[in-house]
Amino acid sequence: MPKNNSAILLIDSEKCTGCRLCEMACSMLHHGILSPHRARLRVLRFDNGRCNVPVVCQACEDAPCIKTCPMNARRRIGNQAVITDEDRCIGCRACVYVCPFGAPVVNPDDGKTLTCDRCSDEDGPPWCVRACRDCGALKTVTAEEAVARKSRQRAEQARAAYPPKKRPAA
Amino acid sequence: MNVLIIGNGIAGNEVAFFLRRARPDCRITILSAERFPEYDPCSLPYFIGRDVPRDAVFRKDWQDYRTHRIQLVLDHPATAIDPAAREVTTAPGMRFGYDRLVLAHGGSLYIPPIEGIDRDGVHSCKQLGSADRLDQSGGSAAVVIGSGAIGIEAAEALKKRGYEVTIVELLDWILPALFDPETSQRLAANLEGCGIRVLTSEKVLRIEGAEKVSAVVTDKRRIPCDTVVIATGVVPGKALAQTAGIDVARGIRVDAHLQTSAAGIYACGDCVETVDACTGEDAMFQLKHNAVEQARVVARNLIGEPAAYPGAWAFARAHFFDTHAVTFGKTTRATQCELGQLEIIERDEGADYLRIITKEGRVVGGQAIGRFGDVIGLFIGAMWRKDAIPDIRANWPHIIRKGSPYPWTHRQLGESIGLKP
Fold first, then answer.
1. What is d(CA B39, CA B55) in angstroms, rounded to the nearest whole number?
2. Which of A131, B56, B291, B314 is an S-S bond match for B11, by CB 3.0 to 4.6 Å?
């Protein structure tokens, strides 16, 4: 039974400081070295570090990479993450091209692609989430929590944009 | 319900297994013209090139059909459909009745009318049987006729096997349907750099040889060889439907629910002519992801869900040795005859090349080689959403501060088309 079942990796780019500890943690767990090039997520940096966006495989429900892979190497595992089967991957990068986020990472060692498996062999939260506990930009939540969080966030934004007016006295 | 599926390819199997998951009780039969479980034609060149073992080309094994109770009838190509009697006749003369019929027999290799094309040593790489023959035939010099995706991949595979390889293309540039000449010329140069000879604007006149192939004669030269690979494209299999009185155009005509003009007969995969999901124009992209999507729509309609098919999308990659190229949407040639202001955004940095085709400020297609391929998915997204490139330019570089529905995506798009941070 894979671990981290039914957990959604929630990304809040506004909390991301661009420290890249998540990249370090990811490469350490999966490859045993600290190498951001081998991390399965990347932090994009914009506006001189004022905006940082962690990019990671979203495990799309109808994932285009599964459909376009010529070797059928992209497959969904038990915890709903979509991974590349390294025995089948030929390094053609079809998944990199078709991904709407540009999430798959090409392994510099063998040219095969790497994507987030949500640390399916680990107990407890994925390593990137543990590494990010100070900032809280990466979190694992259930689907219900994610929806509730999103609607609350939207409501707050709407409230800020349209502050309640005092009703004229009747 | 008794569902009969003609064709044991990607589309046919997707229909069968999707249907089985939703309906444990209906009867599903697949008529296959070949004698293998489902395999992926996209994988065949990599098996010939020994990148992967032969087992890796299969998407299903025999046990999958048994556990899902799908009857697979091998070596039974369908020869006739009788829509009135709801019966299909196969080549060995057997008749199969149906309540719902799915045409998923795909396309067949286009065999150009060249003298000597039936000689020993002329191969193709579209089906597993022919790929096996090519794999087992020995040789040292090969000519690949046609330079589509299959042709390029076959050329790479044979080169890896130690053949002397020549690609002969009738049109002026390689991969003519997928890439613009500017991109293709770079790819051709890379192919030449890998030791594959590329001859464009050349017509093959005949294939010479007594018993076995000895040379290919074009209008410019004579190329000695012992192996010929035909890769001149795939024609949709529409004859079966046409003789049954079903509407056909370039492929089998279908409505939004992928039903053909005959009630109860659906079609999906390479044999179908559908619309482009982005532009709404008639389209025939014989690509795997479209076959899978169409098959799911057919299966959902079969179980009574009125699912509509949004349309096909063009996306292909070309990959040989350490060259990685990708194309999506329309090429310049396909957009030139249309109204609208075209702008082509090019970036050329050494081995990396990006070419984005925009019409009226909206992305309609693009191609990339090398590192620019990493962001091509963002351009595909921009094409689907019809994002305005002029807006990105106007708000540059403060897209994130000024607010945008896709802030970091647009920011990255801007950097990719060469706007300075």
1. 9
2. B291
Across the strands, what pairs with B352? B349
B176 pLDDT exceeds 60?
A: yes
Query: Which residues does residue B201 pair with via DSSP β-bridges, in sequence order?
Result: none
Q: Cβ distance B241 to B260 under 8 Å?
A: yes
Task: Give this complex's ipTM.
Answer: 0.91
- Please state, in angstroms and rounded to a whole number, the distance separating the CA atoms of residues B37 and B66: 11
* CB-CB under 8 Å, A98 with B377: yes
Cis ω on the peptide bond leading into residue B397 (within 30° of 0)? Answer: yes
Q: Cβ of B380 and A47 within 8 Å?
A: no
| Segment 281-310 of chain B within 8 Å of chain A by CB | 287-289, 292-293
Question: Angle CA(B343)–CA(B346)–CA(B350) in degrees, nearest 5?
Answer: 175
Domain made up of B2-33+75-109+235-302: CATH architecture:
3-Layer(bba) Sandwich (3.50)
The C-alpha atoms of residue B176 and residue B146 are separated, in whole angstroms, by: 10
Domains delineated in chain A: 8-160 (3.30.70.20)
Which CATH number, 3.30.930.10, 3.40.570.10, 3.30.1330.40, 3.50.50.60, labels domain B122-230? Answer: 3.50.50.60
Q: Where are the domains of chain B?
A: 2-33+75-109+235-302, 122-230, 322-416
Task: Name the DSSP class of B172.
Answer: S
Q: How far apart are CA B228 and CA A119, in angstroms?
A: 48
The CATH topology of domain B322-416 is: FAD/NAD(P)-binding domain (3.50.50)
A residues 28-47 lying closer than 8 A (beta carbon) to B: 44, 46-47
Q: Would you say residue B35 has pLDDT above 60?
A: yes
Q: What 8-state DSSP symbol labels residue A165?
A: P
pLDDT tens digits for range B64-76: 999 999 999 999 9
